[in-house]
Each structure stands twice: as C-alpha cells, then as structure tokens.
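Researcher: Quick test of sequence recovery. Tokens follow.
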C-alpha cells in the first residue's frame, strides 16, 4: 500500500494564502486548511478566517502554540523579537506547525505569486514536506490575487484599511504609520504592546518594538502628526511615479528591518 500523503494549505490571515485557498477550492478534495494562531492576532483576522471558512465549506484547523507569547518573552529575558532574531515565529508558528504534521508526508501549498520569485515561503526542515507553488505555476500575480478574492465575495481582510500585513497585533514588521493605525483602531492592544517594552535602568538599554523609539514616544500627538505627514508625502511621491496606486501599494515603503516572515504574513 502506498504511503498516505497529506495536502496542507497554511493560511496566515493575509491576502495571498487566502486567495490561494479560494483558488484551490474543490481542486484537492482532501486539502487540510490550517492557521497557526499565536493567540495575539487581530480580531479582524479571526473574523476574516471565519468568512473564508464559510466560503470554503471546510474547517480551518487552528494550531495553537503550547505556550503564549508572554511565556517565551520571559524565557528570552524580556528581549523582544525583531527581524533578526524572530524567535516568535519559531516558537509560536513553526514549531506548532511541525508538531501538527509530525512525520507525515506532506504536500504544502504556498501562496507565493508569480511576480515575487524572491520569496521562499515556509522552508520545511523535513524532506518529507514538499512545497508547491500554484500561483507561480499559473502565472498569478498581485492584481489577480485581489481579483480572485473580490470575485469570490470573500474580499480582503478589513485590516487592510490601515495595515498591510497579517500577523500579531504587536508585530515588529509594522511600519510607524501602522502603529498609529493600531493606536487609533485598537488602543487597548496598543497599550498591551506598550507594556512589553522595557528599559534596563542600569545599562539604559531599551527593548522597543520600533527601532530607536518607544511606543510611548511614538504615541505623542506631535509625533503622530509627523508620522502621518511623512506617510502622506510618501503616498504623494509614489502617486506621481505610478498611476492607479492603491493603499495596498503604498504601505510597503518604510524599512522595518527585513522580509516579513512568510509563515505569518503570506
Ligand atoms: S506576526 Fe510578527 S510578531 Fe507575530 S510571530 Fe510573526 S513575526 Fe512574530
């Protein structure tokens, strides 16, 4: 008897993996849909997943980390994750996912698009996991992704009105304008993110989400006005160089220290 192969599509709550789920609907009957839930995602993401689940007519399995973010933060001596260390992805997403697939043979469906060959997606450490890229194979690009979501009626996640990516509410890949968005839309979450920031009174070392600036500093009215003005300037200058520029295009301007983790934000 040949060995059973599992087909798994891991959703991040972002547009590309969601569009892939829509695109793949009915093509692989045994497809398993999963979402690695850190427990600190935005409410909008959870609502979006419910909508997607309804459209797919199939359960999206929530894979939870064994311990919450707080636990690992204490383990890492209060050092917040950043683009270089990224222990959060490893402990809260990748490890639970690897536990979920165990030693099974898996075909993993990855939502990398044809117009972004530089992205690699989740790199499995096991040779028993084979990644496939249906969007690349079918020449599906960014605009097609939006069309797939629009045509299906699922649409894009509502957080796209103020934030460009899925992931934890405190994600360090957020740009300053998105932190302002968090403050304005979810002041309670902003406060919670603020509470994770610390400084060492002896050394003066600061652990902040945004490099060189604490959230308390970022939340000052004059600083918010400055961030908004800089953002408006960026949008204006991009609009000049590109016709039909949308919100989705202008968010990717500020350097937040590297490529976002694919497991969280594809
Ligand atoms: S979304 Fe951001 S903070 Fe959350 S696990 Fe991924 S990289 Fe870490």
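Model:
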């Amino acid at each position: 008897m040949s060995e059973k192969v599992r087909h798994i599509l891991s959703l991040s709550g972002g547009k590309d993996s969601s569009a892939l789920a829509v695109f793949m609907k009915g093509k692989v009957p045994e497809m398993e849909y999963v979402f690695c839930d850190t427990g600190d995602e935005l409410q909008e993401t959870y609502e979006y997943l419910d909508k997607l689940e309804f459209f797919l007519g199939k359960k999206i399995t929530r894979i939870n980390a064994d311990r919450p973010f707080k636990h690992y933060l204490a383990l890492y001596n209060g050092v917040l994750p950043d683009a270089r260390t990224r222990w959060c992805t490893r402990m809260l997403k990748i490890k639970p996912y690897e536990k979920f697939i165990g030693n099974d043979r898996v075909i993993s469906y990855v939502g990398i698009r044809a117009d972004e060959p530089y992205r690699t997606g989740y790199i499995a450490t096991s040779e028993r996991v084979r990644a496939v890229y249906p969007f690349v194979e079918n020449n599906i690009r960014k605009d097609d992704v939006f069309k797939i979501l629009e045509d299906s009626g699922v649409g894009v996640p509502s957080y796209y009105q103020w934030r460009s990516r899925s992931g934890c509410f405190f994600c360090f890949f957020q740009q300053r304008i998105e932190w302002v968005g968090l403050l304005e839309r979810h002041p309670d979450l902003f406060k919670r993110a603020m509470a994770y920031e610390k400084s060492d009174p002896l050394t003066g070392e600061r652990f902040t989400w945004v490099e060189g600036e604490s959230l308390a500093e970022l939340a000052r009215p004059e600083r918010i006005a400055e961030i908004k003005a800089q953002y408006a300037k960026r949008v204006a200058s991009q609009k000049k160089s590109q016709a039909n520029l949308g919100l989705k295009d202008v968010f990717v301007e500020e350097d937040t220290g590297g490529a976002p983790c694919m497991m969280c934000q594809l």
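The pocket of iron/sulfur cluster is lined by residues 38, 81, 86, 88-89, 92-93, 167-168, 171, 173, 261, 264 (CB under 6 Å).
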